[in-house]
Amino acid sequence: MPILSREKYWILETEHTAYAFGVNAHGLLVHAYWGARLPFAEDYPLPPESGDYASWSGPSHLVPEEYPAHAGAKFVEPCLKTTFADGVRDTVLRFGAAEVVGENELRVTLRDAHYPLTVVLCYRVHEAHDLIERWAEISNTGNTDDASITLERVWSALWHLPWGGQYRLSHLFGRWFEEWQLRRELLQPGVKVKESRRITTSHSANPWFALDRGGADETQGEVWFGVLAWSGNWKLAAEVTEYGATRLGIGVNDWDFAWRLNAGETFTTPASLAGYTAGGFGAASRTLHDYARAQLPHGKTLHPVLYNSWEAVFFDVNEASQMAVAERAAQMGVELFVMDDGWFHGRAIDNAGLGDWWPDERKFPNGLTPLIERVNALGMDFGLWIEPEMVNPDSDLYRAHPDWVIHFPTRARSEMRNQLILNLGRTDVQEYLITLLDKLLAEHNIAFIKWDMNRNVSEPGWPDAPGDARELWVRYVQGVYRVWSTLAARHPRVLWQSCSGGGGRVDYGMLRMVDQFWVSDNTEATARLGIQEGFSQLMPAITMESQVTHMGRPLLSLPFRFHVSMMGVLGISDDLLKWSEADLQTGAEQIAHYKEIRPIVQLGDQYRLLPAQGQDFTAVQYVSQDKAEGVLFAFRVHLPEPARIPPIYLRGLAADARYAIDGFDAVRSGAAWMNTGLRLELGNGESTVRRIRRVE
Ligand code: GLA
Questions:
Q1: What are the angstrom distances between the C-alpha of 313 and each of 306, 345, 348?
Q2: Ligand 1: which residue has its CA nearest to atom 4?
Q3: For 310-349, what is each residue's pLDDT tens digit?
Q4: Which of 137, 371, 614, 648 is the right S-S partner for 120, CB 3.0 to 4.6 Å?
Q5: What is the pLDDT of residues 66-91, one digit of tens each?
């Protein structure tokens, strides 16, 4: 049983890890253990007592409260902050009840000592995936005529790290065109905050973390890691208290946030998932990858090789040109033909059309069906780009509903890329989009949608908001989820891609709808090596769309650019009508090669053998889960002479089995390839992709 429940004490066990907490003698719900699974239930420590404390500190400094509310003498970061209708801003939570639901869910109810406020802490044990999922449900249990309660902070979880040692936080940062940069820094006393205030997950940080102490690396060391499954404003606060305790709170951002919780209503936070491994950052990533793959709407279906029109012709799409290029794409072996921006009513450049999601009459006088039929006749599926959350002021939709955008009536509406954001918190906007997009999908044979989101919020006003206008940040995201998942449910065949000007909306909240992400608008292959490595910290290769474009040409060869993109879901976005016969031939060969290794890349375990960020020689390996096959990618960007090419030690092979590797005569044991390594002679700007095969 993954949940062991004793008298007000609970142990959650996954295959290799455990998490324990309970009510201590002072009546506080307190964290007790998080780490490797222990042999016996008696091995786990009891919830610590508060001990003595001086006049300058409260008990929460000394005991790790599982979900501290802002109350009493607590000077640490709380999970919950409220204001009651009478102005009281002190939330005193007492243990109420606990219930195990089914096999793997635990619900612990806390109640305020005076007000009708209930907090249910929810835990789901993902036993096989070695992850614990946490979220909280906050209810106003008053009668209908009772006053509302204002929530000012409501986090999903506080993750307590084992006592002692100095922890190092690994996190991701970046910006548009340079997402997914990895940093590791030692935590100091105080609070280190990462967040988004942009209404999306953001390019500049991601709600993913890894904490280690004692110097974990890719292959070894204790790592506590996790994510927040949320696609809007989020906040992560890693705190080292003055008593040396380390904890990490994560949830919806409380910046500019408030939520009016009326009597009878419940606020449910997004979930945070976290895990522990002694196998280093590589094992932490693979744990998340396995879980993410299990969430994908289309499961283990292999993702198709795609063509995308954006880097080829930008907005300049029309029936004839797309039919011509489709021919070439099909000849090369492309399986999915995606028409990006530019196809809809009034769209010539980026200053018009967003909102009017029907085909542009000049570019597609007969609608989209002739093109789709041609694409299908060539043996490919058809995909389309949309950006449903946006309007250009120059659009029929905006002219009809200028009040539908996020704005303050007394302020100018800042445009970014000439566009404004529809307030998806409004149910009328949601309904409009569901109807319009449902029609688009019902009337056309569309197998793939790239859903884009190309600006961040400004002037975050919501005139006539039904609740507190600051609910916008959360209601907007709930609205996006509602529109998107309604469409996904009605059109289950469609494969969805999440894009926000590249990797601005990549998170575990999206996984309920999407199978694939656009990772970055930067497709220059050497930059991409680092970007993809950062992305791989939290997401598996099957979700990582990667395209061969003109970027990096002529310095980087076509095979090099293909090899970089073959490490995820391969795509091409370049004007194929301008490719030479030789290039088309190379493209066809690379696509054929990719199709052979695709199951290993998309469904196998990933090993980052030699880091890419900041390095000029990098290698990544994928191994099928039965360890029968693998594939090794290596890239030499630029090493000056005398070049010291590092040896490559393979990983993840069966030690006793024998393996052959393309380009090497010897058949050696997995242990030999992993412990003695191999060398590849590559020149500057060269790359290689080698199959690894188990030999019986
Ligand atoms: C964003 C996306 C690109 C492309 C353009 C179209 O920038 O990231 O891939 O779709 O929009 O306008």
A1: 16, 18, 12
A2: 310
A3: 999 999 999 999 999 999 999 999 999 999 999 999 999 9
A4: 137
A5: 999 998 888 899 999 999 999 999 99
CB 511 within 8 A of CB 271: no
Determine contact, residues 355/398, Cβ cutoff 8 Å.
yes
Per the DSSP assignment, residues forming a β-bridge with 65 are 30
Phi/psi at 67 (5° precision) = -150, 75
* CA–CA distance, 253 with 523 (Å, rounded to integer): 31
Q: How far is the CA of 324 from the centre of ligand 1 (A)?
A: 22
- Cα(624)–Cα(145) distance, integer angstroms: 60
Q: Which residue has the tokens 């609205």?
A: 479
Pocket test for ligand 1, best of 385, 417, 548 (most atoms within 8 A of CB): 385
Closest protein CA for atom 2 of ligand 1? 501
Q: Dmax over Cα atoms in the chain, in whole Å?
A: 81
Residue 578 CA to ligand 1 centre (angstroms):
22
**In angstroms, what is the span from residue 174 Cα to ligand 1's centroid?**
18
pLDDT in tens, 485-516: 999 999 999 999 999 999 999 999 999 999 99
> 569-584: per-residue pLDDT in tens?
999 999 999 999 999 9
What is the per-residue pLDDT for 52? 67
- As a whole number, the mean pLDDT across the chain is 97
C-beta separation of 207 from 236 below 8 A? yes
The pLDDT score that the predictor gives to residue 146 is: 78
**How far is it, in rounded angstroms, from Cα 363 to Cα 81?**
54
Question: What residues does ligand 1 touch, defined as CB less than 6 Å away?
Answer: 310, 340-341, 385, 452, 454, 499, 501-502, 518, 521
User: What is the DSSP code (8-state) at residue 416?
Assistant: B
Q: Which amino acid is at 333?
A: G
Nearest protein CA to atom 6 of ligand 1, as residue: 341
- Phi first, then psi, for residue 577 (nearest 5°) are -70, -20
Catalytic positions, please?
452, 521
Burial of 599 (0-12, 13-18, 19+ CB in 10 A): middle
Pocket test for ligand 1, best of 338, 453, 499 (most atoms within 8 A of CB): 499
Contacts of 413 (CB under 8 A, 6+ apart): 405, 407, 420, 459
Q: Which percentage of the chain shows pLDDT scores above 70?
A: 100
| Main-chain phi, psi angles of 284, to 5 degrees | -60, -45
Segment 606-616 mean pLDDT: 97
Distance of CA 341 from the midpoint of ligand 1 (Å): 7
Q: How far is the CA of 572 from the centre of ligand 1 (A)?
A: 14
**How much is the pLDDT for 54?**
73
- Looking at residue 487, the DSSP 8-state letter turns out to be H
Beta-bridged to residue 186, according to DSSP, are 168
pTM of the model: 0.98
pLDDT score recorded for residue 50: 78
- Mean predicted confidence (pLDDT) in 524-547: 98
